[in-house]
């Protein structure tokens, strides 16, 4: 699962000049395993993987396949998947929402989302409106690994799934049970095939299947349990970003002008320019009473330990010195090759022993933050908090303090600037400001790690934890992602 994407987010400049072509990547951000389909309104809807982050299964919407907006999530809280998704016992890092599927079913006037969680069973969520509320409709005691849903012309629901050996299930009419399954075919040469999607076009059934080494197959049959044959659609297609990985997992969709193209870096613009979407970079001041769709918690949060009312209050939720065991870290995807995130925090409510800050968050993490010890507040930069991918993501280090100095303010801007380009420096650097306009570098350059096992790219993580006792809190005034493309 690669971190590049298929679609580019809205840039205000684009509305001023008529687009005649567009260039990949459309979204330089982490929305893996896309399942893109047309909704009842003729617009395009994109469902993606989100692993342990909550809410899960983000949804993007586009009118033209080029400009996309993040509009919500199909899984309201990963707490539904069990206590390990609330950070109990062995927290289920990297597990959670993997290559799932979402479609609109006209007969019921509902959206359906299916995802196999933790190789065990498949969860079903439905919603009347794609923006929610989504609710769990049931579970199916069978794992539809890497699944693709088709709602046939006669309203029968089929799901294609599997890894290497690809199967199809016919679902019961309520979509919550199975009436038949059969193994259909195996990846050519017995090799790994994954990310299957199922379509019906001009009377034929098609399965799009991927090999992680960068080959896409198209399988075809005139009947669903019939004889399937394949052709190789494309092989060895590499990223449009220099140094990026191979293309893996996608969807087959017809553009507004009727085109269906093979992979390319640039294409003619597929329709008329859509209405402007909200800019993706900017400041979120936490207006309203819930986080916007750009935010996902690291695991399901302790909902008694935060509140939003035109600012975000994070109460210390865990006594720990380990960020990977600290609940209620609020994460946000990065955008672009050189993303910059800045958080403004009022930490006057912290108690003795508390820490808070802004992390470049992954299985190898660094952060800038504030710690309180007695009546002293220190600005700190910590690097090298790590997890062991081969041992259930156990914490192997809580990190080392690279820089520390006492401060006398109660409100601060903390910034992380990253270079996430595959051919770039792969670095995070840290700075702070007391007035939001003049930033001072702090700490050392941290080298980002891109080993594949964690799947998810670096995110911004706003965190807080207590090392002595609960009771303290911080106020997160605003968060800004900046830069121009
Ligand atoms: C795939 O199916 C074949 C034949 O049914 C079986 O021998 C093989 O073990 C299966 N492979 C996997 C990876 O499940
Ligand atoms: C939100 O804050 C406003 C002003 O600070 C206050 O009047 C209101 O009661 C708060 N609402 C909730 C739900 O706490
Ligand atoms: C912000 O603070 C810096 C140094 O602390 C100062 O040089 C600068 O003038 C300040 N800017 C504003 C707009 O207050
Ligand atoms: C990245 O993580 C892997 C696995 O933990 C480790 O072996 C490797 O040294 C790390 N590389 C860097 C540059 O930190
Ligand atoms: C957001 O800012 C980053 C950092 O400069 C940039 O790389 C990215 O292209 C911007 N995204 C948009 C949609 O403007």
Write up this protein:
InterPro entries: ConA-like_dom_sf, GH43_C2, Glyco_hydro_43, Glyco_hydro_beta-prop_sf, Glycosyl_Hydrlase_43. It comes from Hyaloscypha bicolor E. The chain folds into 2 domains: 267 residues, Glycosyl hydrolase domain, family 43 (Tachylectin-2, Chain A); 203 residues, Jelly Rolls (Sandwich). The N terminus is likely disordered. By secondary structure, it is mainly β. Strand 3 and strand 4 form a beta hairpin. 1% of the residues lie in helices and 46% in strands. The protein is built from 1 helix and 36 strands. Strands 21, 23, 24, 26, 31, 32, 33, 34 and 36 form a 9-stranded antiparallel sheet that branches. An 8-stranded antiparallel sheet has the order 5-22-25-35-27-28-29-30, with no helix packed on it. A 5-stranded mixed sheet has the order 1-7-6-4-3, with no helix packed on it. The site of one 2-acetamido-2-deoxy-beta-D-glucopyranose has 4 residues, from loops.
Task: Indicate the mean pLDDT.
Answer: 92
CATH class of the largest domain: Mainly Beta
CATH architecture of the largest domain: 5 Propeller
Spatial extent as radius of gyration: 23 Å
Q: What small molecules accompany the polymer chains? A: 2-acetamido-2-deoxy-beta-D-glucopyranose
> Percentage of helical residues?
under 10%
Give the DSSP E fraction (strand runs of 2 or more residues).
Answer: over 45%
**Main pleated sheet:** 9 strands, antiparallel
Q: How many extended strands? A: 36
GO molecular function: hydrolase activity, hydrolyzing O-glycosyl compounds
InterPro entries: ConA-like_dom_sf, GH43_C2, Glyco_hydro_43, Glyco_hydro_beta-prop_sf, Glycosyl_Hydrlase_43
Protein name: Glycosyl hydrolase family 43 protein
Domain Beta-xylosidase C-terminal Concanavalin A-like: 284-468
């Amino acid at each position: 699962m690669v971190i590049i994407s298929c679609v580019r987010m809205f840039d205000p400049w684009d509305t001023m000049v008529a687009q005649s072509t567009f260039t990949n990547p459309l979204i330089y951000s982490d929305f893996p395993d896309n399942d893109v389909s047309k909704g009842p309104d003729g617009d395009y809807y994109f469902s993606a993987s989100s692993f342990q982050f909550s809410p899960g299964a983000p949804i993007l919407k586009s009118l033209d396949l080029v400009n996309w907006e993040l509009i919500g999530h199909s899984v309201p809280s990963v707490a539904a998947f069990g206590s390990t998704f609330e950070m109990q016992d062995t927290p289920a890092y990297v597990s959670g929402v993997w290559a799932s599927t979402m479609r609109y079913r006209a007969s019921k006037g509902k959206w359906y989302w299916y995802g196999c969680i933790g190789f065990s069973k498949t969860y079903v969520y439905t919603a009347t409106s794609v923006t929610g509320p989504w609710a769990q409709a049931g579970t199916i005691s069978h794992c539809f690994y890497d699944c693709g849903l088709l709602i046939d012309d006669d309203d029968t629901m089929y799901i294609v799934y599997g890894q290497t050996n690809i199967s199809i299930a016919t679902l019961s009419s309520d979509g919550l049970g199975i009436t038949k399954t059969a193994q259909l075919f195996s990846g050519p040469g017995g090799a790994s095939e994954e990310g299957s999607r199922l379509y019906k076009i001009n009377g034929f059934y098609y399965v799009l299947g991927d090999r992680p080494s960068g080959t896409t197959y198209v399988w075809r049959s005139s009947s669903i349990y019939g004889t399937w044959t394949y052709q190789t659609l494309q092989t060895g297609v590499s990223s449009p970003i220099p140094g990026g990985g191979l293309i893996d997992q996608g969807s087959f969709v017809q553009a507004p002008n009727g085109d269906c193209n093979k992979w390319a870096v640039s294409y003619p613009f597929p329709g008329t320019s859509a209405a402007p979407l909200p800019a993706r970079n900017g400041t979120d001041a936490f207006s309203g009473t819930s986080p916007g769709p750009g935010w996902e918690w690291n695991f399901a949060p302790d909902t008694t330990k935060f509140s939003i009312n035109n600012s975000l209050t994070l109460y210390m939720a865990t006594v720990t010195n380990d960020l990977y065991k600290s609940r209620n870290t609020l994460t946000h995807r990065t955008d672009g090759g050189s993303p910059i995130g800045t958080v403004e925090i009022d930490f006057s409510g912290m108690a003795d022993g508390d820490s808070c800050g802004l992390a470049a968050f992954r299985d190898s993490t660094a952060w800038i933050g504030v710690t309180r010890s007695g009546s002293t507040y220190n600005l700190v930069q910590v690097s090298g908090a790590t997890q062991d991918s081969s041992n259930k993501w156990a914490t192997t280090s809580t990190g080392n303090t690279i820089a520390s100095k006492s401060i006398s303010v109660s409100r601060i801007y903390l910034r992380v600037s990253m270079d996430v380009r595959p051919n770039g420096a792969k670095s995070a650097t840290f700075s702070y400001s007391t007035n939001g306009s003049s930033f001072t570098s702090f700490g050392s350059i941290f080298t980002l790690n891109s080993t594949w096992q964690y799947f998810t790219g670096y995110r911004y993580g706003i965190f807080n934890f207590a090392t002595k006792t609960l009771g303290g809190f911080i106020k997160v005034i605003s968060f800004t992602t900046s830069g121009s493309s």
